[in-house]
Amino acid sequence: MLYFAYGSNLHHFQMKKRCKDSIFLKKINLKNFRLTFRSKYRAADIEPKKNFIVPGGLFEISKSDEKKLDVYEDFPNLYKKYFFYYYGKKVMTYTMVKKTTFKFPTERYLNVIKRGYKDCNLEKKYLIKALQG
């Protein structure tokens, strides 16, 4: 199955530890969404927003990887699954159930995401914009 990562799962080492079968395929952009941070966890989330882009990593994951991600993402309590199509192929990602207000992420979490942006060769400007709330 195809999985779109846009937060801490962009970090290749962390993703491999979490999902042993995962394979990073390439970077892609999710159009008409924007990146934000929210909840008591100050975690990454995406929300529909016209003319915005969320850069991310496209991964191939196994069924057991998906189960591990479900646990990590606290599905279906904190995150729910969101599906979209990329060149005719179904892709799964997670989006928060409760859309609370913006909360700046912790430095540790942010550093993991920054490393992930480097690993996937993503443009940092989208992350910087998201951090402005």
Describe the protein's architecture and organization.
This protein is an alpha+beta fold and 133 residues long. The protein has one domain (2-125): Gamma-glutamyl cyclotransferase-like (Hypothetical upf0131 protein ytfp), CATH 3.10.490.10. Helices cover 27% and strands 41% of the residues. The protein has helices spanning 12-18, 63-72, 107-119, 125-130, and strands at 2-5, 23-38, 43-60, 79-86, 89-96. A 5-stranded mixed beta sheet has the order 2-3-1-5-4. Strand 2 (23-38) and strand 3 form a beta hairpin. The chain is globular and about 35 Å long.
Mean pLDDT: 97
Please compute the radius of gyration using only Cα atoms.
13 Å
The number of helices is: 4
Strand content: 35-45%
Structural features:
alpha+beta, five-stranded mixed β-sheet, 133 residues, single chain
Short description:
With about 130 residues, this protein is α+β, with helices and mostly antiparallel strands. It has helices at about 10-20, 65-70, 105-120, 125-130; strands at about 1-5, 25-40, 45-60, 80-85, 90-95.
